[in-house]
Amino acid sequence: MTTDTISAPAPVEERLESAAWKRWLSIQGYGLVMRSLFPPNASPLAMRKRFERFGRTPRTKLQAKHPNLVFEDHAFGDQAMESVRAVDTPTCVVLHIHGGGHFMGSPSSYRSRTKRLSYRCNAEVFVPDYRLSPEHPAPAALEDALDAWCEVQRLRPGAVTFVSGDSSGGGVALAMMVALRDQGLPLPAGAILFSPWTDLTVSGASIDANASNDVWGARALLEGWAPHCLGDLDPRDPRISPVFADLGGLPPLLLLAGEYEALLDDSRRVHERALAKGVASSLHVGPRMQHDWPLTLPWLAESRDAWSAIAAFVEKNTKGART
Q: Which residue among the candidates 118, 167, 241, 267 is catalytic per the annotation?
């Protein structure tokens, strides 16, 4: 007969050193993959194909591992939208605007991430398949996000509903809330913005300050990607660069940014400008973290801390919306 051996906990210093190595290897591997697959001078359509090839996860594969996952198909206008439930009785709804530089990403390539968002937030998550650049430059994504929001309101009337977005999708989500406010339409109970790209002028101080820390090589990447989606818009137009928008009257914001990412100041400036307008804004900076780390590196302790902050934000504002 064999028995399992339970090792004694390693000394604190040894465990911290082990965690540091795991973090370093994870981040370096992440950077290598992103620089290889998505360089600044690559065709946006080629990068889109790579993103789908490596990111797409069939529903059946996820449901084999998580039998309680429920997917549904919806539509808004001519566009498709997918919903996912990783919990039996969601307490709220989230509309998630996926990232991908405005020219890549889809509900199918975001399923692993939105499944986690559903589970962590105890939410039903809707993911619109919005129009992408360069075929449909700005403000097409913003227009689709507004239509998707209105459709979610129709599908789940009375539900406490949040909006979330990551990277370019975080910028679209923020611009969407500004448009909702300006049009007098219902606003979400709160917004969760992961490393949002909010400034297509590429003027944030952290882009150069973090040049040696960001594993993407982000200035060349951002300057190469921005023209794909601008169309006829000025890069300072708040519809594509909401860091320049009037943020007054928006719902509570939770912004998450990595300490070492180039886009750190895209979140910092939104946070500061929101606070100046009386908006309840919180900024969670992941120590030593990179772009979108809670979604791309969920196994790290820093990601678990971020997800705890997200869950607390959603719980607080769900209760607040019901009182």
A: 167
Tokens (6 digits) for 11: 């000394």
pTM recorded for the entire structure: 0.94
Residue 241 has pLDDT above 90, yes or no: yes
Percent of the chain with pLDDT over 70: 94
49-322 placed in CATH 3.40.50.1820: yes
Query: 6 pLDDT exceeds 80?
Result: no
Using alpha carbons, list the distances in angstroms from residue 58 to 52, 95, 118, 171.
Answer: 11, 21, 17, 27
Is 167 part of the annotated catalytic residue set?
Answer: yes
Query: What's the whole-number average pLDDT of the chain?
Result: 93
Domain map (residue ranges) of the chain: 49-322
Give the dihedral of Cα atoms 256, 262, 266, 272; nearest 10 deg: 70
Residue 287 phi, psi dihedral angles, 5° rounding: -60, 125
55-110 pLDDT per residue, tens: 999 999 999 999 999 999 999 999 999 999 999 999 999 999 999 999 999 999 99
**Chain centroid, CA 124 distance in Å:** 16
Distance CA 55, CA 6 (A): 37
Please tell me which residue in 96, 98, 102, 291 is annotated as part of the active site: 291
Cross-strand bridge partners of residue 72 = 83
SS3 120: helix
Tokens of 94: 């989230």
Catalytic status, residue 291: yes
Active-site residue identified among 241, 261, 267, 271: 261
Share of the chain above pLDDT 90, in %: 90
Beta carbons of 255 and 267 less than 8 angstroms apart: yes
Give the integer Cα–Cα distance in Å for 177 and 88: 29
CA distance 113 to 80: 18
